[in-house]
Amino acid sequence: MARPGFVLEVDDRTPPLIVHNGEGFLLERFPLGTRVVYPPEALPPVRDVEEAIQNALLNPIESEPLPELLRAGMRLTIAFDDISLPLPPMKKPDIRQRIIEAVLELAAQAGVDDVELISANALHRRLTPNELRDIVGERVFRSFFPDGKLYNFDAEDADNLTHLGQTRHGEDVEISKRAAESDLLVYVNVNLVAMDGGHKSTSIGLASYKSLKHHHNSHTMIHSRSFMDHKASKMHHSAWRMGEVLTEHVKVFQIETTLNNDLFSGGLGFLQKREWEWSLKDQASMLAAKRGLAAAPSKLRHKIYTDVRSPYQLTGINAGKIEPVHDKTLEMVHAQHLVEVQGQSDVGIIGVPYLSPYNVNSVMNPILAAVMGMGYHFNSYRGNPIVRKDGALILYHPVPYEFSQLHHPSYVDFFEEVLSESTDPATIEAKFEKQYAEDPWYIHLYRTSYAYHGVHPFYMWYWISHALDHCGDIVWVGANRKTVERMGFRSASTLQDALEMVSHSVGRSPSITYLHNPPHLIADVR
């Protein structure tokens, strides 16, 4: 039986604790009384993955079995989550590969020969052929990619978009034409955290800017409390309304999977454990990794981390109608991630790791570091943030001035031009978004190269708007001073310095909560 997560109160016997810090980690001693929220241990996996897949397809929730939905002469489209999930990437075979192969086998038995597979990347960058192959597997890749039947969704291809209508709130629903005109759309999802899945899969992953701007905006984001609770997230409310319109026009068979918390293995296996439970081998691995990463050239250190593949195991799979399937999914996600926390603190502390959904096989630029800390980890709560209103947030990451011109060209201009004029999300949206969203060069790079859409850095900045609104002080420990100042934040050399800097608003003896993740957790703050 996996042990649940728990809250540790730091005392004089507590050893130094791991804090993720970009492409490395620190050992930090926290002030006495600090609450440390530990994630639950990995849940036990399903015993037979192939059997679980077949059971989900043949015994779906509130839907006919998949074989009954398949027939000769039909148009079948299979869409799947892109490389933004899971994080880190999983060891082969990817669970999406195993599901897609099972769906294709049933389709072949039914005589279906009009099949296309789409990476549901919305305004994310296109996946390379090798990245597509890593997800769907060699056999599927060879069967579909050479003929153009396996491809990335293009949100700027006007000829291949279909406007399905508007929601009751006037939100446009415009998605992939192929998906919209299919007799059946099968969506294959990886639900790593509670934010994923549900109507978000189809109505966001296969949508154009015309649709996405209705919920990826500063007003909606600031009122999404939090992204990990779709019932309290205005972004999810919009996606659900769009999903209602979408499913009026398109038959969707949703397949959702959940994974356990088994992120690190081998030489990084000690990151899965609580520090006082480290064996001598774990301690040796930790010291070797810490010293090796600190001494390694930046390119080697980056390669070490980007080569990490997680040994996740499947904890559940459900298929059928979107809403009841997602309800089952959330039960499993909450069983894996929820940790009960009593009350808020004056100060929240978060270590920002090396990886975000938007720098897979790339670099973590300053904006992505900010969104990982203040967008994703800050929002890893249900009920209330771990920090009280107008409290302080302290983050760890070096935040170097580093950008990928291949993957994030508009991020460079956003950082230099937009943030130099304002850091207020609403002001930025009103003054600059349209220009970047419609810029022909950014659109060209998105469509023909491997660049995120020109508007994407705006979405990332809106993603942190809840934290910006909620927190009175935000300080980065060990960060490049110039990069964090451009984003409107301050930098401290040490945790002690950071606590001193925020003492004017939280006092000299504040209550402190440290989120000890990854592995992933959701603080259920009551």
From TrEMBL:
Q: Name one Pfam family in it.
A: Lar_N
Q: Could you tell me the superkingdom of the organism this chain comes from?
A: Bacteria
> Which residues does the UniProt record annotate as the domain LarA-like N-terminal?
37-227
Q: Name one GO molecular function term.
A: lactate racemase activity
Fetch the PANTHER family from UniProt: LAR_N DOMAIN-CONTAINING PROTEIN, LARA-LIKE N-TERMINAL DOMAIN-CONTAINING PROTEIN
Protein known as = DUF2088 domain-containing protein
| Organism listed in the record | Kribbella antibiotica
